[in-house]
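Sequence design from tokenized structure. All designs in this work follow the same two-part layout: the structure record, then the generated sequence. An example of the structure record is given first.
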């Protein structure tokens, strides 16, 4: 039996693969084309925490955690012949699909990057879904990290999945992946719709895991040895807001809040995100859905200003003196949107949140301070404008 983890070299994919491999005797096959490493390099930035090459990562997992059942295949999921080969050779019972170009600002640089992002993400997912059908693997549980961004910012509480629509006195439940606000986020709206269709047409069990902004450095397993670390990006394009703010605090740079920053965004700690995916992947055939299930992989919605203030407060514990500055917002967004999002199904999956935002920030700062020199050497990457689209 085997479990396929796509994007196994990525921020979420690597620690998820390690946890799954530690919990099961099944063969865990990681796939990646190392594109994320290239994208970040193109921005002139780097992961603050050194990320070893895959062979060294697998060696460290074997040495320190006794993991013998994990292997890696390099390849591009947009190549259908590659996907066919992987499915034919490994016949996975579960696919955890985390491979994607995940940055909204990167997808917005120019038409070429928008095209690249949409082609990369959609083609990869379609190749996998059609591949499962064509290889007669329609009992395989397909789990994908989509994004809470597929919902956009509606003026009503966001449901965990579909919404009820009323028109001319009639009501029906409709899927709700439709108001994404970037060319990247829309790839996940399309993926959500394609997964729904694949479930309907091919009967593939699907867990559509709408992942919130994920923060954190370590999981229980990766904390054992720095050679097992996952990446930590902090530049404008690939650093999620909480990571960028923490890096700004470490570099003694003011935290840059775009506009008023009162809009609430959904967040989840890396530990909780990894736990949900590991449970979905390892709970065995009896626990797997024979259906299409949406999870909002969120533990809390927090305003951007609250994030900055929490980081500023925790920074003081480390002797850092951090200011919060407001810059003109380069993004089109409602700076006061008060997001409310249901996540009961996800809470139940992970038995409740394990890490608060404040604890997460404390963990990030304590580790990131060891890499202060890397962050300060790249502090000009906190702001946009580095990429013009002419780099290729
Ligand atoms: N990190 C977050 O805050 C967050 C939030 C919401 C959703 N997500 C989603 O979770 C998933 C993982 O995100 P992440 O932060 O770990 O990103 P990441 O970039 O670190 O990981 C994605 C991995 O997929 C690989 N990849 C991309 N395209 C590929 C292809 N065509 N073939 C093979 N490998 C390919 C990349 O090289 C990378 O290692 C993505 O689908 C992302 O959209 C992440």
């Amino acid at each position: 039996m085997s479990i396929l983890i796509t994007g196994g070299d990525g921020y979420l994919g690597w620690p998820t693969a390690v946890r799954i491999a530690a919990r099961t005797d099944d063969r865990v096959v990681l796939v990646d084309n190392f594109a994320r490493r290239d994208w970040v390099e193109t921005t002139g930035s780097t992961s603050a925490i050194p990320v070893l090459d895959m062979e060294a990562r697998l060696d460290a997992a074997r040495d320190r955690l006794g993991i013998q059942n994990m292997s890696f295949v390099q390849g591009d999921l947009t190549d259908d012949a590659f996907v066919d080969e992987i499915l034919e050779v490994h016949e996975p019972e579960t696919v955890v699909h985390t491979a994607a170009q995940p940055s909204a600002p990167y997808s917005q640089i120019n038409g070429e990057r928008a095209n690249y992002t949409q082609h990369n993400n959609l083609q990869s997912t379609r190749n996998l879904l059609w591949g499962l059908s064509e290889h007669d693997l329609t009992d395989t549980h397909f789990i994908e990290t989509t994004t809470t961004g597929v919902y956009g910012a509606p003026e009503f509480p966001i449901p965990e999945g579909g919404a009820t629509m009323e028109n001319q006195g009639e009501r029906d439940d409709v899927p709700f992946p439709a108001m994404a606000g970037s060319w990247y986020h829309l790839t996940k709206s399309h993926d959500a719709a394609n997964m729904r269709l694949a479930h309907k047409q091919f009967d593939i069990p699907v867990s559509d895991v709408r992942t919130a902004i994920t923060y954190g450095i370590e999981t229980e397993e990766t904390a054992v040895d720095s050679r097992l670390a996952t990446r930590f990006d902090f530049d404008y394009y690939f650093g999620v807001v909480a990571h960028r703010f923490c890096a700004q605090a470490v570099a003694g740079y003011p935290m840059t809040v775009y506009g008023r920053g009162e809009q609430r965004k959904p967040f989840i700690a890396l530990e909780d995100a990894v736990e949900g995916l590991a449970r979905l992947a390892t709970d065995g055939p009896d626990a797997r859905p024979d259906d299409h299930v949406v999870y909002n992989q969120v533990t809390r919605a927090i305003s951007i200003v609250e994030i900055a203030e929490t980081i500023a407060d925790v920074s003081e514990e480390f002797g850092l003196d951090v200011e919060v500055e407001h810059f003109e917002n380069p993004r089109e967004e409602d700076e006061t949107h008060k997001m409310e999002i249901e996540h009961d199904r996800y809470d139940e999956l992970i038995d409740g949140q394990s890490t608060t935002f404040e604890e997460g920030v404390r963990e990030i700062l304590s580790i990131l301070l060891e890499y202060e020199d890397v962050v300060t050497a790249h502090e000009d990457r906190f702001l946009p404008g580095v990429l013009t689209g002419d780099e290729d």
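The radius of gyration is 20 Å. We note this feature because it recurs in several other targets discussed in the main text.
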